[in-house]
Backbone:
């Protein structure tokens, strides 16, 4: 026979104890035969951090039900000696640390998300628990080795046996402390972190400067090809657009304005160009004076792709945005008198678009022969024939004073257009946020009152209308006799 004092189990440095059903005792004697059927339980514990968030903004989604399970095992069979139910947890915040979970391969799921009224937020719950539930598997078998390394680092944070000076000793403590914090952060964000992220629906918020839209009684769907927004600009006006992508996580409540770095914005712009007769000649005339003036009209006519920038305040990443300058061209003279700017997100998993309709206002010359004046006059005098078939009337030496009034309307069209000609645009340096302040200020030459591209002189390219009214009077003497012919009496 033989005596068994202990059983040495080696598995990732874990601690094992006999299972409750085991008959093993230290020092037990085996007289003969096979020794077996004595199970041991791995009681090594670890820590796991679970994040359940909305987008890259780490927004709180609601109260979550978290399910954890050892890969290949049913935890209900090993509740003892673990003593606690390690299957389902309730998590109220976006981030929670779970201590004393088995140091094994764990499958973790989010079963449901509930709001403050305990109602199930179905679209988010369905995202995590759809036809193919999202399961995160994490390996916690060796995380204790990292904990030992941290404990050793903590022990060396306050060195006592050193011949260094006080200043050098403080520097050593600081370096050790920083290294320890970095190690802890790396451990949390690497070995122990499980993240569940619901992004929601990506939307595009479109803003412009100088919009003159005043009415509200219009239908985007029926009148403007289902456009998402309507804008009104005067002829040949420069304007700035700002596009702000954001995710709608819970409608009306939770949004996130931080987007993935791989997303791009495509813009197809038709606001500066048109299909009206004479447009090519119009651009050719402008090119003779300044090519840059034509470029802003034609910008993105075949499409441009923009990187999506983010603002940063004190190192914190904030709202995503794209900002650029465009110019309205000539009016569209064909119903419904609009031009379009189409925007779309590239690189995402779903199609996200925005169609902006622009109505350009102003006079448009149709050229000679396509318009004419309609003169009007008032009767000078009405002559009536006396009653009776053979009667007639004679008017002699009648003096009449006549007042003549004329009016005219003229229009002139300035074909010269340029970014040097338009109203002053006042902005603050904050406009450069997200574009790189240094390069942005150099590009636009920001002063106290910023004149973007020098829009400052007059209405270059706009039709100007002038009206003039003249009047004069004169006196004349005249005679007249009505017809004596009975067949034409009264003529």
Residues:
């Amino acid at each position: 026979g033989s005596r068994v004092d202990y059983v040495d189990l080696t598995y990732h440095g874990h601690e094992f104890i006999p299972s409750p059903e085991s008959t093993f005792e230290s020092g037990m004697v085996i007289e003969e035969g096979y020794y077996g059927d004595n199970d041991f339980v791995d009681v090594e514990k670890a820590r796991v951090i679970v994040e359940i968030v909305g987008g890259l903004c780490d927004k709180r989604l609601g109260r979550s039900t978290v399910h954890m399970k050892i890969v290949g095992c049913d935890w209900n069979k090993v509740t003892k000696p673990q003593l606690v139910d390690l299957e389902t947890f309730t998590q109220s915040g976006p981030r929670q640390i779970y201590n004393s979970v088995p140091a094994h391969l764990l499958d973790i799921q989010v079963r449901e998300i509930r709001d403050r009224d305990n109602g199930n937020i179905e679209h988010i719950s369905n995202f995590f628990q759809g036809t193919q539930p999202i399961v995160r598997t994490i390996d916690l078998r060796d995380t204790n080795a990292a904990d030992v390394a941290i404990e050793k680092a903590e022990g060396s944070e306050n060195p006592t046996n050193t011949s260094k000076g006080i200043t050098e000793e403080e520097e050593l403590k600081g370096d050790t402390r920083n290294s320890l914090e970095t190690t802890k952060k790396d451990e949390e964000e690497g070995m122990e972190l499980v993240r569940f992220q619901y992004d929601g629906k990506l939307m595009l918020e479109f803003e412009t400067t100088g919009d003159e839209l005043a009415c509200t009684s219009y239908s985007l769907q029926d009148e403007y090809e289902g456009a998402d927004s309507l804008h009104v600009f005067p002829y040949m006006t420069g304007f700035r657009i700002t596009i702000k992508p954001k995710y709608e996580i819970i409608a009306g409540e939770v949004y996130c304005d931080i987007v993935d770095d791989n997303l791009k914005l495509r813009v197809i712009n038709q606001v500066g160009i048109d299909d009206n007769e004479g447009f090519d000649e119009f651009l050719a005339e402008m090119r003779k004076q300044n090519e840059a003036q034509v470029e802003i009209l034609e910008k993105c006519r075949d499409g441009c792709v923009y990187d999506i920038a983010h603002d940063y305040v004190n190192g914190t990443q904030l709202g995503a945005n794209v900002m650029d300058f465009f110019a309205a061209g000539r009016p569209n003279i064909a119903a419904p008198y609009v031009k379009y700017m189409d925007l779309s997100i590239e690189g995402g998993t779903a199609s996200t678009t925005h169609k902006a309709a622009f109505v350009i206002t102003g006079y448009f010359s149709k050229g000679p022969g396509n318009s004419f004046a309609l003169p009007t006059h008032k009767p000078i005098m009405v002559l009536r024939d006396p009653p009776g078939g053979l009667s007639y009337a004679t008017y002699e030496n009648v003096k009449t004073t006549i007042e003549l009034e004329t009016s005219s309307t003229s229009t002139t069209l300035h074909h010269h257009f340029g970014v040097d000609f338009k109203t002053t645009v006042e902005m603050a340096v904050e406009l450069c946020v997200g574009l790189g302040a240094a390069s942005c200020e150099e590009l636009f030459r920001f002063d106290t009152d910023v004149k973007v591209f020098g829009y400052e002189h007059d209405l270059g390219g706009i039709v100007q209308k002038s009206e003039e009214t003249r009047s004069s009077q004169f006196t004349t003497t005249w005679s007249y006799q009505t017809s004596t012919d009975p067949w034409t009496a009264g003529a």
In short: DSSP finds eight helices and 24 strands in the chain.
